[in-house]
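This follows on from our talk about sequence and fold. Can you supply me with one protein entry, sequence and fold together? Could you add the entry underneath, on a fresh line?
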Amino acid sequence: MTAITPTVDESTPVPAVKAAGPARRRGSPMATAALVLGALYCLIPVLWVLVASTKSAPELFSTFTFAPSAHLIDNIVDLSGYRDGLFWRWMANTLLYAGVGAALSALVSAMAGFALAKYVFPGKQVMFNVMLAGVLVPGVILAIPQYFLFAKVGLTNTYLAVLLPSIISPYGIYLSRIFAGGSVPDEVLEAARADGASEGRLFFGIALPMMRTGLVTVFLFQFVGIWNNFMLPYIMLGDDRLFPITVGLSGLLNQGASQPAMYTAVITGALLSIAPLVVLFLALQRYWQVDLSAGAVKG
């Protein structure tokens, strides 16, 4: 039996086969321009603080340019010498308030979010709705009532006056409920219960590691919020050795009206106060990338 070989007319053009893959859309020039303007809007003030902190007081007030000078080290030395290094005491206080407060807030938010996502109990929906209402209430409104409550128990002008209100974050609880619902499968919990695991073991040994990347987001939001908080410590604290960096720099700024040289100290302090936030975001960036990629896979 003779095999039949199909013939191909070489004169007939063969259509090219495009490689499979997602089609790329060209970015809109208007959208690109808007993003560039938004980036400039956010970065120009930071750039100005960086440049202004390198100038002496006469240079700061004589000209307005983005050309740096050579007085950054001198300004840091002068700021460090203010009242025997009070500025670094403010930095340490802020790290304490933001670090401990954000860590405890992330833990409490994780526990509350896990309970709201994985347990059924009376009043659950009402509690969640009240918590959502708390997201809409600005923290400034609560500062004065919190002051009166803490004054009743004698906790004003202490570290706890700033730490305790920072632990509860309605927005953090809301995010944690979403993370718990999406990253902790019910089947895993039921299998662990069948093996005799306690409820504490379910949370700390199973749910918390699964929620870790999501809780980094909660920690960062709360850390930045506490770091930039002004009204609560301003109302709660009277001893300037307990001040965070925001309240301390505000006091230095008020002194600038009678001592113009203090303005350079304020600007240099503002630059130094940004550095821990930049370091934190760079250090935790990989967790953000993991969290975003995991969300893309699930979607």
Q: What stands out?
A: The radius of gyration is 28 Å.
